[in-house]
Amino acid sequence: MGAFPNTQPLFVSLAQQLRERIDSGEWKGGERLPTEAALAATYAVGINTVRRAVGRLVNEGVVVRRQGSGTYVSVQASRRASPLIGVIVPSRTYYFPTVIEGITEVARTAGATLRIASSEYDDALEIRCIRELLVAGCAGLLITPTLHLADPTARLDLLRSLPVPVVLMERMPADSPPDDGLSAVCTDVVAGGYAAVRHLARRGRRRLGFLGRRDTATADAALRGYRRAIDDLTLVDLPGAVVRRDSWDDAALADYAHRAHSAGLDGVVCLGDREATALLPHLRRAGLSLPDDLALVAFDDEEAADAPLPLTAVSPPKREIGRLAASTLLRMMGRGGDRAPVRMLLQPVVRERASSAPVPTRALQPLA
Beta 140-143 vs 84-89: how paired, if at all? Predict the structure, then answer.
């Protein structure tokens, strides 16, 4: 049978695997479970571990013990009626609230209960959240892991080893083998970077720059999309106009604004909304008027519409990410246990606002 993770007590892991088999319909309501000795032999654990695991299920109302007869699946097994889904996101205040709304919508329709935790981009806290949700009896896990802050191989191996189905959200395993069993539902960030450049090019912008950070999960993918679009659309390649930092303070933003003016940039892709908003006053001080002299496209579309100058932004399909991730997990948890791995990439859209509005005097160049 399945391997047990070392993130929780052995009897808890065993209880989860037994519950999963009940949830899948392998053991139906009123059916007797194998004997404790048989379960111990099947799972290669001791009798005491089996007794503690079954006792946990008795306390949860999943099974009932009948003296002299054995242990039976409860006809009103609460776990089957209302599966518990664990959700771990890096933040409950930025980006992911909309993802959670999509998850909640699907869970409510399915009669599932959610237990939501935030890792706060903290690797150790994420491990604790995983352990706590498993101990709480979650039958499946939706997670946005901190792959860019920890050892991604070790974290993905841990998630693969869990005794419940797992679906990643907004994190696609990199360099994994073609037969990797982890499922993931993500925004196509490369496509987002590409779409931002295409949008600017369609507005007649030819000398573009890229301002971003190095330490975010989407940083490399957005830049790959930007660079490919520069090549595909035969725009001016200005390597000095591409600047990435671990963080952007006022001095760094002012330096980039002067760089943009000196290089004659007429468009900038900025990862993400907060950096783009903070860049606006520095561009004005450098003598650049938006969108006449320079058009700006942000990435994330969390705060772009509320900037002093409403920002055009690449907008990921956050709610749909949540919906599809939850639907995929429920299918994997459902009767029959369909565990076929799923990899989905959803295209973002560019929402145009004032920062890249067409300038009447600018000759627009048609692009493919």
Answer: parallel
